């Protein structure tokens, strides 16, 4: 059956790959964006997830077009990388506000409808950085680690209503961001990955689609690494 799916930050990179995977599976997919909209074929809604009023308007738009959200993928995120002693309060606050608080906000709103339906799938997109840490990314690592505690708490709250809450933690993935890294830096990262390559956005999307499927209906509160083995044991 076609489901109503929302992917935040679904206009490019990993988010677009996730949105495309659901669309190809026959679902009705809405995506949020801030600046550049996604390709045609999605319900594209401009939304700043740090703004509660915009989030409410987002869900009302999806309700009118696709019905209540049955699958939420909280993917939207930003980085403000710098070393700890150079990190400003704004660098910290903006990353936490988008990556952690924004994800909380959309999950809370989605759960409202899922509780009425007595079913639903919530997936937070974290990062191997949230498990291992990374110099220059204190704010980003904290936000991505926080998603795990939030997801597991929600899994315990919402599970009795048929709602699963899980986390997918990508490693280094072939995106525009990794493409511009110096060759020496890329080699350094690759040397730490047991599989010896960067991941593909489609590989992240496949894991997200599966954990949102009926086949994964007895999995909740899980952290699924899709990282080529770099974070194993965490």
From TrEMBL:
Keywords: Fatty acid biosynthesis, Fatty acid metabolism, Lipid biosynthesis, Lipid metabolism, NADP, Oxidoreductase. GO terms for biological process: fatty acid elongation. The active site is at residue 140. Pathway: Lipid metabolism; fatty acid biosynthesis. It catalyses: a (3R)-hydroxyacyl-[ACP] + NADP(+) = a 3-oxoacyl-[ACP] + NADPH + H(+). GO terms for molecular function: 3-oxoacyl-[acyl-carrier-protein] reductase (NADPH) activity; NAD binding. Its EC number is 1.1.1.100. It is an enzyme of class 1 (oxidoreductase). Coiled coil: none annotated. The keyword Metal-binding does not apply. Homotetramer. Catalyzes the NADPH-dependent reduction of beta-ketoacyl-ACP substrates to beta-hydroxyacyl-ACP products, the first reductive step in the elongation cycle of fatty acid biosynthesis. Belongs to the short-chain dehydrogenases/reductases (SDR) family. This is 3-oxoacyl-[acyl-carrier-protein] reductase. It comes from Kribbella qitaiheensis. The gene is fabG.
